[in-house]
Amino acid sequence: MQLGMIGLGKMGGNMKLRLEKAGHQVVGYDRNPEVADVGSLAELVEALEAPRAVWVMVPAGEATRSTVAELAELLGEGDIVVDGGNSRFTDDAVNAQALGLHGIGYIDAGVSGGVWGLTEGYALMVGGAEADVQRLQPVFDALKPEGEHGFVHAGGVGAGHYAKMVHNGIEYAMMQAYAEGYELLQASEYVDNVPAIFKSWREGTVIRSWLLDLMDRALEADPELAHIKGYVEDSGEGRWTVDEGIRLRVPLPAITESLFARFTSRQEDSPAMKAVAALRNQFGGHAVKSE
After folding, report:
1. What pairs with residue 53 in β-bridges?
2. Burial of 17 (0-12, 13-18, 19+ CB in 10 A)
3. What residue segments make up the domains of the chain, in order of their start?
4. Could you tell me which residue ranges the 6-phosphogluconate dehydrogenase C-terminal domain spans (predicted)?
5. Confidence label for 92 from pLDDT (cuts 50, 70 and 90)
6. What number of CA atoms fall less than 13 Å from residue 149's CA on the CB side?
7. pLDDT of res. 129
8. What is the largest CA-CA distance in the chain?
């Protein structure tokens, strides 16, 4: 099958390679001309045979919105656009409507797999019309991991990115749980070999997972994580998950706390804890530490 791929970074570039290894023809465009097959979106569209399929793999937000808007003017009736970035699910209806005015189909695809996807495959969560999804099923089959799992048509437009948002919220909480366990083991006077404990958990335990495998890999390289600063960014999906919990009145304590823990990691000193220390000093005369 023929496909256009826009955005050939760590994810898009490897997805292009995986598809080509499966026998698909992929025409790639990127702002970096050294990795691109064509020099513009117009050239990419011209290189594809109708009905066309174009996969957008650029940063979420304005970059994706502007790319979709440009494609709406370049593509034609019967073509399909896939947004495979981490777009907020609320953007999908807007994109689908803009493309639909030109008879262009739209699929939102949540993609998980990171830098390992080229060899291990990408888990795909897609939303869109059944006919559009069926038409691109050969592409999805080539990208997904081998076996029966790793792909879901989650529902209509927006469902794919919604599922990926929740996936990432769960990922936040899982990573936080492993991290808290690591810190407790490091602090304990009973434990002599924290990396060996994590390694032992990879088989036969109820907490084994790919994230645990990656934690073991990180500890093999740096047993005390001495070369890493405890500063963690968030890319948005955790916040959106918490927002949805509030909107739908669904309690998400583990996911919410894991997000807030990332905020804490960015503070050199906590204004909130300064306030607590000041209050303890005021009501009880408790000692405070000065700057």
Report:
1. 80
2. middle
3. 2-156, 165-266
4. 160-287
5. very high
6. 2
7. 98
8. 78
Distance (Å, whole) CA 81 – CA 75: 9
Is 183 annotated as catalytic? no
Bridge partners for 5 per DSSP = 28, 55
The residue assigned the tokens 């050939």 is: 8
CA distance 71 to 87: 17
Which tokens sit at 156?
């209509």
Peptide bond preceding 195 in cis form (omega within 30 of 0): no
Topology (CATH) of 2-156: Rossmann fold (3.40.50)
Q: Which CATH number fits domain 165-266: 3.40.50.300, 1.10.10.10, 1.10.1040.10, 3.40.47.10?
A: 1.10.1040.10
Amino acid in the structure at residue 35: V
Catalytic-residue membership of 130: no
CA 122 – CA 103 distance, rounded (Å) = 29
Catalytic-role residue among 20, 70, 120, 171: 171
pTM across the whole model: 0.93
